[in-house]
Design brief:
This protein has about 55 residues and is mainly β. Helices cover about 0% and strands about 30% of the residues. The chain contains no helices and 5 strands. Strands 1, 2, 3, 4 and 5 form a 5-stranded antiparallel sheet that branches. The chain is globular, with a radius of gyration of 10 Å. About 20% of the residues are buried.
Length: about 55
C-alpha cells in the first residue's frame, strides 16, 4: 500500500523510515508520521527534515 502514496506537496516518491515510523519526502524536506499504521499525509502534521535525517 505504501508504494501507492506520494508526497502531497511534490508528488514524488516517499521513503519509509521504519525506525521513526515516518514517510519521508526528500524533495519537500518533510517527514509524515505514521500513527497506528495509518500515514498522516497532512502538511501541517509533517516535520521538517534536515539533509542528514
Amino acid at each position: 500500500m505504501l508504494e501507492a502514496l506520494v508526497c502531497p506537496v511534490t508528488h514524488t516518491v516517499l521513503h519509509y523510515d521504519a525506525a521513526r515510523q515516518e514517510l519521508v519526502s526528500r524533495a519537500a524536506g518533510l517527514a509524515f508520521p505514521i500513527h497506528d499504521g495509518i500515514p498522516i499525509m497532512l502538511v501541517g502534521e509533517a516535520r521538517q527534515i534536515k539533509a542528514d535525517d
